């Protein structure tokens, strides 16, 4: 067989296929589901009671899609932190006068109408009634404003609308475009004697775009039915309007005054007659000489607790030095293993020559157990950490037993902290409620501020008794002596012992450096002084002139260890 007839037949078949595509193609395209709404025609009526009846006839450009969705906004925000609320009712969808199984749901502040349109051969008719679109103007007129086209799931080629009105209108306007910033429609009109009903025309419009109609009526022609809802904003919740601001300021002032009054009544030291109880004195014993005498056995730890109403590392440090000076403890500075090694001390238990108070015994047993080996200062956190709470409790109990406080200062602080914390919780909850449901959030903030005042200033509520105030006045005189008393006035031959007794009180009250320097200056020879002080021993080549540096490092190390426990 020749190849020519085969070629001719092949070309003939291809031509038939092309012809079939040309003939059948448009029909196949028309058989596909429509992707556009050909026309969206609205017939509506504005009623005298402000309600708006809408009937929209939706015609597809081709075969009906499987479904059509239209979303109507339930609210529209306006200036002034408010929004208009709309209600849709009597929502119905039909095709050829037959109802279809349309569903109406609420989603994200929208009324969503879902219409099954698969196989529909006639336009879809959607009808509903809107309440809340009739807005009262400040001048008394009524404006009906509604987006007849909005939230449609398909684009629209042509939109037209006609609204019947109960009376002559004053103005008409039409906006169209994106929901956020619509422009003007293609055309609109009406409101004349010949054509009283407003008409609107626009298109094409994309998916979700809007056509908004605005019709204004004279006063009394249409009853406003606007539904206004306040919108929560931070500025509104914490309004600075005169009433909320005034109430917040009043609450702040009254709360502050109330706490001040409570502090004066419960947290202020007892008011005595200015009595002063001497704590210690420099008693003259000769011409230009005086020895340091402690009266009534008042200890440095008790002094520190009375002064600042707290048991802190300074009080513990002064107590350790006092125990050493009184012969219960010895600090031994160890030789450094190298020039760059960390300095170390040991704490050794001694017999002592007087009785110990409970807190002193607890502390001493922890840092230098009786009959035990000397304890390294580097082990102080472990030694003191286990008993520091007991030491604090015993020292607080001690100052109450002495009659300086009516109640333990720490318990007073804890009580007021709990009261303040409870007030903060209540104030925060009140602020949340006030901010969420009213504009009086500032009042809640004022309550929080007063509550925080109770939390923090409640730490100043411990109050000294008259006896405690008298003792505090005596400490004031002792501090003046420690800062002003000549350091070279100690009895000859007893300088080291007398100056050592001053040190623990100077650590707490002040003047520590000058008395420590006086100890260094008491060295009258060039010999080594490693054991001249019974309470502080040092390496063989150590001299009293090295004491200020050594004791400074010791105190800093002790307090650092106590703070790091």
What attributes does this structure have?
elongated, alpha+beta, 565 residues, 5-stranded antiparallel sheet
* Sequence of strands across the biggest β-sheet: 7-6-10-2-1-13-17-16
Through-space gap between termini: 109 Å
Radius of gyration: 47 Å
Structural class: alpha+beta
Number of β-strand runs: 25
Characterize the overall form. elongated
Number of helical stretches of at least 4 residues: 14
Helix amount: 25-40%
Describe the structure.
- Helices cover 39% and strands 25% of the residues.
- It has 565 residues and is an alpha+beta fold.
- The N and C termini lie far apart (109 Å).
- An eight-stranded mixed β-sheet has the order 7-6-10-2-1-13-17-16, with no helix packed on it. Strands 11-12-18-14-15 form a five-stranded antiparallel β-sheet, with no helix packed on it. It has a four-stranded mixed β-sheet with strand order 24-23-22-25, covered by helices on one side.
- It contains 14 helices and 25 strands.
Summarize the structure.
The chain is of the alpha+beta class and 565 residues long. The protein has 14 helices and 25 strands.
Fold blueprint:
Blueprint: H1 3-31, E1 37-46, E2 52-60, E3 67-73, E4 75-78, E5 82-85, E6 87-95, E7 98-99, E8 103-107, E9 110-116, E10 124-131, E11 134-136, E12 142-149, E13 156-164, E14 171-177, E15 183-184, E16 187-189, E17 199-202, E18 210-217, E19 228-230, H2 234-237, H3 242-267, E20 280-286, E21 289-294, H4 300-308, H5 313-325, E22 329-333, E23 345-349, H6 358-367, E24 375-376, H7 380-385, H8 388-401, H9 409-437, H10 441-457, H11 466-484, H12 495-509, H13 512-521, E25 536-537, H14 547-563
Parallel strand pairs: 1-13, 22-25
Antiparallel strand pairs: 1-2, 2-10, 3-9, 4-5, 5-19, 6-7, 6-10, 8-9, 11-12, 12-18, 13-17, 14-15, 14-18, 16-17, 20-21, 22-23, 23-24
Helix pairs in contact: 3-10, 4-5, 4-8, 4-12, 5-12, 5-14, 6-8, 9-10, 12-13
């Amino acid at each position: 067989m020749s190849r020519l007839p085969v070629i001719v037949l092949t070309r003939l078949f291809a031509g038939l296929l092309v012809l079939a595509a040309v003939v059948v193609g448009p029909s196949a395209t028309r058989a596909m589901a429509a992707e556009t709404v050909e026309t969206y025609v609205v017939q509506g009526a504005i009623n005298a009671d402000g309600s708006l009846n809408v009937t929209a006839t939706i015609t597809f450009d081709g075969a009906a899609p499987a479904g059509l969705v239209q979303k109507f906004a339930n609210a529209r925000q306006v200036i002034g932190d408010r929004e208009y609320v709309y209600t849709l009712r009597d929502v119905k969808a039909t095709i050829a006068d037959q109802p279809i199984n349309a569903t109406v749901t609420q989603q994200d502040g929208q009324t969503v109408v879902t219409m099954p349109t698969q196989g529909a051969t006639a336009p879809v008719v959607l009808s509903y009634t809107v309440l809340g679109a009739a807005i009262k103007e400040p001048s008394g007129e009524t404006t009906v404003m509604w987006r007849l086209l909005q939230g449609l799931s398909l684009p629209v080629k042509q939109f037209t609308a006609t609204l019947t009105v109960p009376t002559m209108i004053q103005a008409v306007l039409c906006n169209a475009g994106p929901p956020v910033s619509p422009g003007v429609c293609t055309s609109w009109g009406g409101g004349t004697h010949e054509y009283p009903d407003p008409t609107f025309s626009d298109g094409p419009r994309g998916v979700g775009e809007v056509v908004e109609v605005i019709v204004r009526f004279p006063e009394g022609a249409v009853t406003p039915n606007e539904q206004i809802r306040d919108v929560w904003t931070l500025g509104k919740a914490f309004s600075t309007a005169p009433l909320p601001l005034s109430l917040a300021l009043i609450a702040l002032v009254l709360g502050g005054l109330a706490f001040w009054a409570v502090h004066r009544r419960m947290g202020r030291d007892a008011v005595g007659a200015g009595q002063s109880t001497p704590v210690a004195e420099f008693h003259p014993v000769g011409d230009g000489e005086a020895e340091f005498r402690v009266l009534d056995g008042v200890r440095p730890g008790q002094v520190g607790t009375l002064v600042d109403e707290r048991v802190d590392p300074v009080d513990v440090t002064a107590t350790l030095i006092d125990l050493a000076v009184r012969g219960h403890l010895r600090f031994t500075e160890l030789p450094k293993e190298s020039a760059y090694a960390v300095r170390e001390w040991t704490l050794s238990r001694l017999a002592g020559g007087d009785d110990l108070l409970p807190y002193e015994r607890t502390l001493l047993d922890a840092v230098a157990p009786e009959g035990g080996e000397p304890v390294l200062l580097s082990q102080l956190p472990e030694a003191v950490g286990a008993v520091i709470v007991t030491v604090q409790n015993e020292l607080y109990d001690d100052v109450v037993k002495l009659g300086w406080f009516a109640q333990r200062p720490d318990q007073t602080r804890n009580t007021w902290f709990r009261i303040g914390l409870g007030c903060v919780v209540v104030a925060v909850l009140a602020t949340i409620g006030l901010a969420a449901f009213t504009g009086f959030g500032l009042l809640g903030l004022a309550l929080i501020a007063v509550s925080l005042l109770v939390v923090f200033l409640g730490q100043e509520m411990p109050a000294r008794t008259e006896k405690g105030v008298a003792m505090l006045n005596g400490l004031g005189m002792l501090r003046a002596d420690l800062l002003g008393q000549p350091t070279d006035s100690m009895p000859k031959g007893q300088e080291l012992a007398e100056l050592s007794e001053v040190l623990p009180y100077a650590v707490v009250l002040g003047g520590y450096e000058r008395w420590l320097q006086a100890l260094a200056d008491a060295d009258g020879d060039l010999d080594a002084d490693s054991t001249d002080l019974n309470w502080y021993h040092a390496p063989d080549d150590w001299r009293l002139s090295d004491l200020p540096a050594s004791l400074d490092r010791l105190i800093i190390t002790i307090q650092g260890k106590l703070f790091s426990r």
